[in-house]
Amino acid sequence: MTAPVPTSRILIASFVGTAIEFYDFYIYATAAALVIGPIFFPPGDPAVQTLAAFATFAIAFIARPMGAAFFGHFGDRVGRKATLVASLMIMGLSTVLIGCLPSYATAGWWAPAALCVLRFGQGLGFGGEWGGAALLAVENAPPGRRALYGIFPQLGAPIGFIAANLGFLALAVSLSPEDFQTWGWRLPFLASAVLVGVGLYVRLKLAETPAFEAAMARSAPERVPLAIVFTRHLRATMLGTFAMVSCYAIFYLSTVFALSYGTTTLGFSRPTFLLFECIAVIFMALAIPVSGWAADRYGRRPVLLTGLAFTAFLGLLLGPMLGSGEGAKVLGFLCLGLLAMGWLFGPMGALLPELFPTRVRYTGASVSYNLAGILGASAAPYLAQQLVAWGGIGWVGLYLAVAAGLSFIAVWMMQETARGAL
Fold first, then answer.
1. What residues make up the domain containing 241?
2. pTM (two decimals)
3. What are 156-193's pLDDT values in tens digits?
4. For residue 421, is it within any domain?
């Protein structure tokens, strides 16, 4: 057994790495809503360019389950530490290189082709990140506090989002629209190099989790963890996947789609709407620890079911509030949407790992988390844009309500995991 690592270092490593990974992921999401279309695709209809940008946004979500399977394989066989370091490096390198790409005007179709490859790399790295970070926290948690420990990788999401949006907000305020579109948007991508260096420094000082070491001491690791997940734990995988769908849908509708819709159809300026998003994500950050505490006290299922019912109700409010174009109502919906996201997201750091045994936990939790990304997030901005064009903003709210209903059914079908042993 390796020497124990201070709990504070473990939780910081779990938080810092995911904050950096989420920052990398969100700067692309923000850029997709603001500049990717006109920079990397042929001149023409702005709506077509936006749809093309959202299509590249979806590529990473397709790559994420592949990353989950790949990194999960080694995370369950070799260990959590080495896998977390590798996933962070791949994600960071892909992000920095996106900031170096030439535009369509300079390189033609090579530019969007390279963008798609690097976006795939982002998804591959991210696919291995969250599961390892969640396990790092949860497998070191004392009894009765797994959800509270599990909020630390979850808190990386709002912190990464705030950092990404504040970066773009500062650039939008300080640069002219021409400078922002020519070179300013690249700076947040290039800054990722420094952040990844910090994350690697923290993670290289970690040791393996006690649960993983104990499992490896009992017997050799599974040869193909993914095969075990899909043959022996298929029900848990599917329930975990659908439980996460609404979480993804509400987040990406309230951020990526809303940012594009707000700055085009509703006519808000970029700085104004980015400020709205930064205010709203504070509600997400506040909801995560509260829901984590509640999930330890009352159980995962009651907390999630109440949050999903609230999310379905928000679907009915999306049209009247977000579609109103009135600043107070738009901001109100964003705050409520990200509050719901935080409430649903908090317990997931514990719930998904608890669905699987230690020997395949990295693979199982990661695959469930990232399959949900395909269903709930990859096409959400694209479909929402199409729904608006087809029938109006109210149909986007119906889409959200349906996603919440699917997740509600999945959580209802689960057994409570709070009191079980890891």
1. 8-413
2. 0.87
3. 989 998 898 888 889 988 999 889 888 999 999 999 99
4. no
